[in-house]
C-alpha cells in the first residue's frame, strides 16, 4: 500500500535480518527482523517479524513482535502482535488477543508538563488558612 505522497514501498522479506536504524521515505513492509530504530511514513509488520528498537510512523499496522517504544498517529495492533514497550498514539485500534506490556498514552500526553516557574534563589511561599 503506497501513501499519497509516495508511489513506492519497500519490503524487507522474512529471510532478512538487519542490525541498524532504518529511515524510509517510502512505505515499509517488514517480515524479517530488525535490531534498530525504524522511522517511516507507513509501516506494516508481518506476523513473523521481530523489531527491537523504537518505531516512529504516521500509520502503523503491527502483527509481529516489538520490543521498544511505538509512536504513531494511527496505530493498529493485530491479535498476533506482542508489544513490550510504551505506546504513544493519536488513534488506536487493538484486536482482541494482542499482548502489550507497557503504557499507553495519547501523543499530547507524551509532551512533558512544565512545572510552575519559580524565580531562582527564592523559596516557594506557603500560606495557611485560619
Gap from first CA to last CA: 67 Å
Helix/strand structural class: mainly beta
Q: What letter string, H or E per element, gives the SSE order? A: EEEEEEEEEEEEEEH
Q: Into which percentage range does the β-strand content fall?
A: over 45%
Radius of gyration: 19 Å
Largest sheet: 8 strands, parallel
Tally of alpha and pi helices: 1
Mean pLDDT: 84
Would you count the extended β strands for me?
14
Helical amount = under 10%
Shape, per Cα inertia axes: globular
Q: Which stretches are low in confidence, meaning pLDDT under 50 for 5 or more residues running?
A: 112-119, 122-130
Concise account of the structure shown:
By secondary structure, the chain is mainly beta. The protein is 3% helix and 48% strand.
Word description of this protein:
This protein has 130 residues and is mainly beta. It is globular and about 30 Å long. Strands 1, 3, 4, 6, 8, 10, 12 and 14 form an 8-stranded parallel beta sheet that branches. The chain is built from 1 helix and 14 strands. Mean pLDDT is 84; it is low at 112-119 and 122-130.
